[in-house]
Amino acid sequence: MTKIYPQNRDKRKKRKTWIFIFAIFALLGATNGNVRNFTVKAIVNVTNPVFKFSRFAAEKKDSIVFLFRNKQSLDEELNYLRERNIELENEIILLESAKKENEELKILLSRPEKKSYILGSIISRPPQSPYDMIVVDAGSDNGVKNGMRAVVYGGVLIGHAVEVFPGASKIKLVSYPGEETNLIMENGKISAIGLGLGGGNIEVKIPSSVKINSGDKINTEGTSHYLLGTADKIEADALNPFQKIIFRTPVNLNELQKIGLEK
């Protein structure tokens, strides 16, 4: 047996009441014009808010869909612009690098003696390679031979080739520990031997009687000499017949891109 709760009984009574009222209006509307008009207006007034809300909801839905699609389009455009910006930044870096290399080559090839060089790009440098050693991408296939002098900026000697392979060469720098280089103190007009200390530093000992100032040029010996560096630190002792000069190669290896190997 189905049990009917009072709440359900009330709902059924209300539903029956509304059906009865609608039936009365429908019956009267069929026979009386005024009642029919009143009934139509009542129905319109009741349903009009529903239709307005439906239209409003449809418009809002279209707006939301449009905004969503528009946002997607903007996101895609922003991603494209970001990627394009990265490409342009890389192009600028490449152009600046090419400009710098071009300037280095111009200086290298502008020596009055018109020497011939084999050009090579540095492919390994400290700390990737042993300190005071660099590797270039020019080797025996390009005509490089052991002992060739490595020159930069048209007039600075940085070392010489010590190991040559078909497509690459190792360059030992003049600052390599224990490396000896014949040199001349330009202002003192005295020859000496430079001794590599490592880390780009070179030491030279000359008589204390020779006047040397900080900044004096130190060149290789020979008619067509190269610059080795400038006097940086001078250590003199009245009790010692020799003074010690410490200098560095005037080149920043981290910025250097190309070298010339003198034929």
Automatic annotation (TrEMBL):
InterPro entries, per the entry = Cell/Rod_1, Cell/Rod_MreC_2, MreC, MreC_beta-barrel_core
Keywords from UniProt, A to Z, are:
Cell shape, Coiled coil
Which sequence ranges form a coiled-coil region, renumbered to this chain?
71-108
Q: Does the keyword Membrane apply?
A: no
Which segments constitute the Rod shape-determining protein MreC beta-barrel core domain?
122-259
Q: What GO cellular-component annotations does this UniProt entry give?
A: plasma membrane
Keyword Coiled coil assigned to the entry: answer is yes
Biological process (GO) annotations held by this record are: regulation of cell shape
Q: Which family does it belong to?
A: Belongs to the MreC family.
> Which protein is depicted?
Cell shape-determining protein MreC
